[in-house]
Amino acid sequence: MTQVFHAQLDQAAFEPFALGSVQWLRRAGGNGNETLSGGIWKVSPEEAPEPFDLPIDQDETIYIVSGHLRIEVKGGHTLELTEGSMASFSKGAMTRWSVLEPTIEFFVYS
What single-letter DSSP state applies at residue 68? Predict the structure, then answer.
């Protein structure tokens, strides 16, 4: 059966996340086998005042709707991501994130 997931940006739909808050479009585990999930993450420098390490547990692709993140990839590049930037990280990547401006990010985990 084909499923369709649809949402609009809704401030009331955001819920607390490890840092910041998230509005889910699709959550993993819906049918027991599903690993794909995605949504919108909001975070501010006040919520993440210091850089934080984030090991990538599954493939992750992000699109910056607004704001500014700096992501350092261990053994790789340092990315300056601002409005309109995209990045994709493979499972197992070791990253360090800095929130430089209030940021809204669309993400997909797969």
Answer: E
- Among 88, 49, 46, 81, CA closest to 65: 81
> Would you give the distance in Å from CA 12 to the centre of its chain?
19
Residue 78, phi then psi, degrees to nearest 5: -110, 125
Residue 11: phi, psi to the nearest 5? -55, -35
Asked whether 103 and 21 are in contact (CB, 8 A), the reply is no
Beta pairing class for 86-89 and 37-43: unpaired
Q: What's the pLDDT tens digit per position in 59-85? A: 999 999 999 999 999 998 999 999 999
Q: What's the CATH architecture for 16-101? A: Sandwich (2.60)
Q: Quote the tokens at residue 85.
A: 């930037």
Evaluate if residue 34 carries a pLDDT over 80. Answer: no
Average model confidence (pLDDT) across the chain: 92
Tell me how far apart the alpha carbons of residues 12 and 109 are, in angstroms, rounded to a whole number.
Answer: 23
